[in-house]
Amino acid sequence: GELFHHRRTQLLLVNSLTFGLEVCLAAGITYVPPLLLEVGVEEKFMTMVLGIGPVLGLVFVPLIGSASDHWHSSYGRRRPFIWMLCLGVLLSLFVIPHASSLASLVALNTRPLEIALLILGIGLLDFCGQVCFTPLEALLSDLFQEPDNCRQAFSMYAFMISLGGCIGYLLPAIDWGGSFLAAYLGGQEMCLFSLLAVIFLSCVLATLFVTEEAAPQADVLGGPALKDAPPKPSAPACCSCQLSRSSCLLQARHMMQALRNLCTLVPRLHSLYCRIPKVIRRLFVAELCSWMALMTFMLFYTDFVGEGLYHGVPRAKPGTDARRHYDEGVRMGSLGLFLQCVTSIFFSTIMDRMVKQFGTRAVYLASVVFFPVAASVMCLSHSVIIVTISAALTGFTFSALQILPYTLASLYHHEKQV
């Protein structure tokens, strides 16, 4: 009982950061596009700005993963990288709402610098937030290596992502400008990002109480530890400098190895792609296109509601009717994304029953077909209620895309058919 309680506590501590990361990313997806439009970034350039983080992540995820595998420190292998990336997230949560103030401190013509700082903050939030999941998942795997414990850990991980998404989409839907916090923190942006910073910082602090991973100790010893092995004598003081130097050289060698692995990544990916069966390749393309469509919808939905349904103007001056309508539309769009996340959680709980009733392939195809139907309804309808309901129902597609492609791949390997 005590050991189980301890393991469950560790699981909650690690996954609290999962929750905090997803809250920040979900709120960012909701609130960042309107911020970019407000400062004058054109819509055709907005996708380029929002693509900075994912592109950098594509390059640095293998590098960080390889480096953390070979890292040795008193805080373990993963947590130094997690904390470094979390620092980037916290910095972005400060830069984004204060971009205008920071620009006014440096330059007279503040608009170009404000846009640059905003782009920097958005790229930092997206990059650090997304990449941080990699060492976080590795930390979970290190701490919970037994199959049963691992399944429980990643079930909690998936739940925390869904819960964080719900909270992250809900927070921008609240009118913080009219709350008591506005008197102390400022307007909507200041209140929202200050609240995100407090939530995220508390989640990061929880990881300080995570026990050391067992894997690094085995790496340091060069193999499994022996219970009866005598303790190693401590190094003399005169050798401490040499040990420190050799440790630095070892870490530098590991970093160079990680860079070499990164350089050979593209050829290896190409050869791997050529060996993939045609059926799995089609599944990959379907998954890629589906996620592209879904992420594009989630990025631009709040702006669509603010401009298309509420007829607001993002570049209008604060306090005007056009700006007020746009802000109301953004909050309603955030509510729609929150309902999408709730719907996703609901369908995740009944997905097993649906698969048993209709089959994996049928449910997956239905989810893929359902999304363009819902998107068409949103484009043709001018009713806020119908659009919000359609957005909420896309949670079915969101849930299916997170579960069924992996089931279909497993089904192929067992039965050689999809």
From TrEMBL:
Keywords: Membrane, Transmembrane, Transmembrane helix, Transport. It is a multi-pass membrane protein. GO terms for molecular function: sucrose:proton symporter activity. It comes from the Eukaryota. Its main location: membrane. The keyword Transmembrane helix applies. InterPro entries: MFS (IPR011701), MFS_trans_sf (IPR036259). Pfam families: MFS_1 (PF07690). This is S45A3 protein.
